[in-house]
Structures are given as structure tokens and as C-alpha cells.
Amino acid sequence: MDFEFNEDQRAIAEMAGSLMRDYCTDERLREWDLSGEPYMQGLWAGCVETGLHALAIAESAGGSGLGMTELMQVLDAQGGALAQVPLWRHQLAAATLAEFGGAAAAPWVERAAAGECLLTLGLDGLHNVRGIELLAHPQADGWQLQGRVSALPLAEQSAAALVLAKVQGQPRLVRVELDDPGISKTPGVMTHGEAHADLQFNGVRLDNRQLLPEAALDWLAPRTIAALAALQLGVSAEQVRRTVAYVSERQQFDRSIGSFQAVQMTMADTHVQLEVLRSTLWQLCYRLDAGLPSPSEALATAFLACEAGHRIGHAAQHVHGGIGVDLTYPIHRFLYWSRALSSALGGSSVILERLGDWLSDNDSLGWKYDLEEHQAL
What we know:
- The chain is built from twelve helices and nine strands.
- The relative contact order is 0.10.
- Helix content is 53%, strand content 16%.
């Protein structure tokens, strides 16, 4: 079996890596920290110019029509550079609308693929302690939204969003236009610099075409996990690379601290955690692109991403010692990102509970289903 990426996939990864690294130097990241900008608009323009913003959007709408494997490589590069651009939310929102939104959503997908507007999405209600706070009440000609969506990324900068609403007691995705006068916004900034806003919905009216079918959430949720895990992989890999370089140069007792056994064992552990996350993520992306069911694989990937982010992040900070908490030194930004990504995934304890619930009803991890389907073919 050949597990190598093909030529096109390698070219996408190289282009994304070059673009991100060239833009996100440590000096420019320091400047951006103080700029107050919601995202890196210059880099986003480069993503639009190179088509990285539309890899996962259907060709019929003007995108590249590629899959999660290609998007994963771009997000890996984005995480390693700490590039603050809305790559995955924008195109997964557009891809979901292209798949499930029907003709009414087609103009939004086309505008997103052309880079004419930003789309965003928020699925935090699936795992946060408050649950889904947005309620959809049936009306004669559609629905009325009442309630709250917390910390929606780039809510003030985006034109439309996919958010979770509780519809007749069940979670459903709805498409909302963010300039609706019935939506009030309270802006904020995450610790790693991502702009967001809390949204209050006061009788926002939707027509039936803005309510996506139940299958849309099942399609989007594992892809969201894969995207966040790919970012975590990039962040963690760069943490390990920079920490290895640091311990190879830092001297104590006339020798590099990287020659101390305790440091070597710590760094070896981070490498193991990194490669476990990588292999699990690659399997998840393969299954998503192949159209295979991936409920347990997605939850396992989310758990490992949270664990890797925590363990690698804190090991890197520990090995750096006092310089790790110096804000003029770059390593702290990676810890901010890894913690933010873990929070977006829901946290390892919540994910482990969800995986346990799934396993209580499924004792075959999906393999029995796959084998039966293969034999039927």
C-alpha cells in the first residue's frame, strides 16, 4: 500500500508552507499582536490569490473541489506559522452550504469561493456547559430565532454564518445573515488573538430554506474536528522543532541541556504524542474523503489533539524554563494556540465521555460495518 501524498498534494503543502512562513515571521507576529486587527488581512489576500481559501469548495461553485486530505496539509502549515486567517471555517461553511443548502445558498457559496465575502461557523454548543442556547420557534412561513450564540469567530467581519439552533429539541444547522438587525453583537478577543463576538438573537426570522437538513451536522462535525486537529498538529510540530533547537543551543554546566537524560526523555515523549496524532488524523481524513463512517475515529482524533496540545505545549514551556514566559520570546504564542484549539474541540474529558457513550452502543469500532459493506459489494 502506498501511503505517500501524490504530486498535487505535495505541491499544495509546499505552496501553503511557503506562503505562511514568509508572512508570519516572529517580528511580524509581534507587530500583529499589538495591531488590534481581527485577522491577517494581507495573508488572507494571498490565500485568496492562490486559491487556498476555496480548496474544499465544490468546483461547480468556483472552488477546487478537493477533500480533507488537501485541506489538512494547508491547516498543518497554518498552525505551524500561527497564521491568523479564517481558512477552515470559511470553506467548510461554504462546502456545507454547497452540499446541503440548496439553490437558496448557491449565491453565498459562489461569493465565498470568489473571495468576495467571509463565512464563519460555530459548533461550540455541542460540547460547552451551556449547550445550545439558540432556539428556533416555528412560524407560519418559517422560523424565529431567539437566544444566544457564544464566541462566534469573526462574527463582525463575516457576512453569513452556520450556527447551531435547537429545533424541536434537536440540534440543527441554520444559515444566518449577520447584518440582520435582530442580531446584536458583543465583540471580544481570544487569548491567541482570534476575534469573536457573542451574538444575541431577538426574533430573527428565517425561511425554511435557511434550515439545513439533519444530515448537514453529521457531515460537518467530523470535518470540523479534522480541521482543528490539523491546526493542532501544525502548532505542536513547530513547538517541538523550536524546543529541540533551543535545547541543542542552551548551555548549562558547559554542555547543552539537550544532552541531559531528563530533557531527552521529555522531548522523546513529545515526538511520540505528535506522531500518534498525525497518524490518527491522516486516517480520519482518508475515511472522510472515502465517504466512510467516522464517528469513533473523529472523537479519538479530537481526544488525541487535546492531549497532544496540552502535553507538548506544557513540556515545551517547561524545557524553556524562565525564557518560556517572556513575552518578547515567541514560544508562548504556541501554548496560547494549543490551549485555544483544545477549548474549541471541547476538552479531552468531554470528548472521552462522548467516546465512552458511543462505545457503549458500538462494540466493533466501525470495522464490522465496513467489512459487511465490502463483502456486499
